[in-house]
Design brief:
The complex is a heterodimer of chains A (299) and B (306). Chain A has 299 residues and is mostly helical. Chain A has helices at residues 2-9, 30-44, 46-49, 87-123, 125-140, 143-154, 158-184, 188-195, 200-236, 248-257, 265-292. Chain B is flat. Helix content of chain B is 80%, strand content 0%. In chain B, helix 10 (214-252) runs parallel beside helix 11. Chain B is built from 13 helices and no strands. The chains are: A mainly alpha (299), B mainly alpha (306). Chains A and B meet through helix 5, helix 6, helix 9, helix 10 and helix 11 of A and helix 1, helix 6, helix 7, helix 10 and helix 11 of B.
Chain lengths: 299, 306
């Protein structure tokens, strides 16, 4: 449904920009996008950028403060933790964990949710009833408690967390996609495809999917923040990414132990990283929501 | 009306069924539940005894029946760590959780509603933009980090507030703030949009045309109606607060249900984890049902639409 309006309002010079065609660039959140790209860059080149091994520390260098405080050294720019591991290196590798978990979990939830949403909306009947009742009942459960429970059972592992986050958050995609499909399937191009003899599956794949993908992208961007916070929460509680892997939530959990003696750097830095990433993803998501799909404003 | 209520109760039962089914099957699919039901380091004989005792050698459907039968009679098993029934533990911790959630709710409404009204009256101006920044920050900061930073500032550096535990009103301030922060942002957003809708309505325009002063129009005509959706959300959020408080309770060592869940995880006390999740889930489902039904009683459009 956005296709028509996009084509009609398309400024001629925008055609040159390829994938950002149709997105008018006014008010583009430059800083949040730069932050996200920066975090992605750090995550990809963590091996080259990190000054130390994030998982191995030196016990003689425990609890070094950041370099500008008394007792700090430039060898460990942001200080060291209780095992003498470099905080900066752990933050850099933590970016990789956050990026991988958030992107794969959002994609996983998106694929499951969008597929079920399309099937539910297009086929209708008992299939629709079953999927939508499942969505309703799923939404009634407390998401975080449910995720904690699943994580506590299957044990801490990064990929377990991805799957758990995926099955916790797929319902949002399913519900929105289904709503869109209900109106799409009444449109002429879908009816023409039916008359032309296309199979149901081909219609769903070729004609419906490209029209609902915009909404899925918008939900996905807004989900990134939720997923990162949930991952950090699970890691903080000890059921997320297992130690000694460097995850921001895990670093906060370790930092909590020495908070009372004023070792602030173990808490403040990972928290700032989580905040920056979530804030940037939320701002970008809000902007995309308004630009790509005005009908989603009410979500 | 009767049909609507029956339908909602049907969904509610379905939700509870799905919850119990998920808890039951996940435990069995992901490994031998006997290893979760015995204390770590138990001998093979102990595990075999547990297999026999809990009927784990019987068909799954029979096992599920037995599981549901014990849940329905209020038996959630025995805690390994505390050596008391899980149900007793849950009820003894619930008042603390309710107290924390009440304080956090009061805080979130005290901040959220006035700032939402202010933003709606001053659309596009300073207070509206400040409100947007506040809402964005509220939704982007993890509550446990807010809690940790507060401990650092108010307990470690300033020494004004106790960093953990319970007992005095002072203990409640930081956990309530950390927990209520996120919800204040969501209440602010809803108050703003709800106020904007009401302020654009005909009866508010009429009130203005009558020459009533701005403060009276906002306080008497607009605010009362704009408050309905906010209070509904607050009702649902109250239960959500009790569920998500697990992290805040962990940070501040607040002896609530969330802390119980965390202890269950930390001590590998599986009956506690299972029981707490089941009770929290059931509570959310039932409160959702009550809110739905109450809303339909107040607003006939809802029950007619469905």
């Amino acid at each position: 449904m956005t296709t028509t309006s996009e084509v009609l309002t398309l400024p001629s010079r925008a055609a040159r920009f390829g994938f950002i065609r149709g997105l008018r660039l006014s008010g583009f959140p430059l800083i949040p996008t730069a932050i996200l790209l920066g975090i992605a860059f750090v995550a990809v080149f963590a091996n080259q950028l990190a000054p130390h091994n994030p998982e191995v520390g030196s016990l003689v260098a425990r609890f070094k403060p950041p370099f500008w405080e008394t007792g700090g050294t430039t060898k460990y720019l942001l200080g060291t933790d209780q095992l003498g591991r470099d905080v900066l290196s752990r933050l850099i590798f933590g970016a990789r964990v956050s990026m991988v978990v958030s992107i794969t979990a959002v994609l996983f939830a998106g694929v499951v949710g969008t597929t079920l949403g399309i099937i539910s909306g297009y086929l209708g009947g008992w299939v629709d009833q079953v999927i939508m009742r499942l969505v309703d009942t799923w939404l009634a459960l407390p998401a975080l408690t449910f995720a904690i429970f699943l994580a506590a059972i299957v044990g801490p592992s990064m990929w377990n967390i991805v799957i758990i986050l995926g099955i916790t958050y797929w319902t949002r995609y399913a519900r929105v996609t289904r709503g869109e499909v209900l109106s799409l399937k009444e449109r002429e191009f879908v009816r023409l495809a039916i008359v032309a003899g296309c199979s149901k599956w081909k219609i769903m794949l070729r004609h419906i999917l490209p029209n609902v993908i915009n909404s899925a992208i918008v939900i996905g961007t807004l989900m990134v923040g939720v997923v990162i916070i949930t991952e950090a929460t699970l890691s903080f509680l000890g059921v997320g990414v297992p130690p000694p892997q460097p995850a921001w939530g895990l670093m906060l959990s370790d930092g909590k132990q020495s908070l009372m003696v004023g070792r602030w750097w173990l808490t403040v830095f990972p928290g700032c990283c989580i905040m920056l990433m979530v804030l940037s993803a939320n701002i970008l998501g809000d902007w995309l929501r308004v630009k790509l799909d005005p009908q989603l404003r009410q979500l | 009306m009767k049909q609507f209520v029956m339908k909602r109760i049907g969904y509610c039962v379905l939700s509870l069924f799905l919850l119990s089914l998920t808890i039951f099957f996940f435990v069995r699919v992901t490994g031998d539940p006997a290893t979760l039901l015995v204390e770590p380091g138990a001998s093979p004989e102990d595990i075999a005894a547990i297999h026999h005792q809990f009927g784990l050698d019987r068909p799954l459907i029979v096992q599920y029946g037995l599981f549901m039968a014990s849940v329905l009679t209020g038996d959630l098993g025995q805690s390994f760590y505390y050596r008391t029934p899980v149900m007793e533990l849950y009820w003894s911790r619930l008042p603390n959780s309710v107290m924390l959630a009440s304080a956090a709710m009061a805080f979130s409404l005290l901040i959220g509603i006035p700032s939402g009204i202010l933003a709606s009256v001053r659309v596009g101006r300073f207070w509206d933009n400040a409100g947007k920044v506040f809402a964005l920050l509220g939704l982007s900061l993890p509550s446990f980090w807010v809690g940790l930073v507060m401990i650092l500032v108010f307990s470690v550096y300033l020494g004004w507030l106790p960093s953990s535990g319970s007992g005095t009103p002072l203990h409640l301030i930081m956990p309530a703030f950390a927990l209520g922060w996120y919800f204040a942002a969501s209440h602010m957003r809803l108050t703003r949009s709800s106020m904007l809708e009401v302020l654009g309505s005909e009866y508010v325009k009429l009130a203005r045309l009558k020459g009533l002063p701005q403060s009276l129009v906002i306080a008497k005509h607009a605010f009362k109606n704009a408050l309905i959706p906010v209070l509904t959300l607050a009702g649902i959020n109250f239960v959500i607060m009790i569920s998500v408080a697990v992290v805040v309770e962990t940070v501040f060592a607040w002896p609530g249900v969330g802390r119980l869940l965390y202890e269950g995880i930390a001590f590998r006390d599986f009956p506690v984890v299972q029981g707490t999740v089941l009770m929290l889930g059931a509570m959310t489902v039932v409160v959702n049902l009550v809110v739905d039904v109450l809303y339909a009683v107040i607003d006939p459009r809802i029950r007619l639409a469905s």
